[in-house]
Amino acid sequence: MSFYYHKRITIIPKLLHLNIGSHGWSWTLGGRRAHLTRDSHGHRSASVRLPGGFSWRRRSGRH
Predict the structure, then answer these.
(1) Among residues 5, 47, 50, 62, which is most buried (max CB within 10 A)?
(2) For the CA atoms of 19, 21, 24, 27, what is the dihedral angle to 10 degrees?
């Protein structure tokens, strides 16, 4: 059985969050509809949620 740890710390309410987990950390900038994320491994992602259940996400970073 595996155990995982995850903690979300709010830096600026509804705008900037620091996410700490058992495999590293990440920054999230933005709200529920659109946000940008950068993690400790150099990966980046952008996500936008659209009305009607549609969403768009783009991931990039180190390969």
Answers:
(1) 47
(2) -10
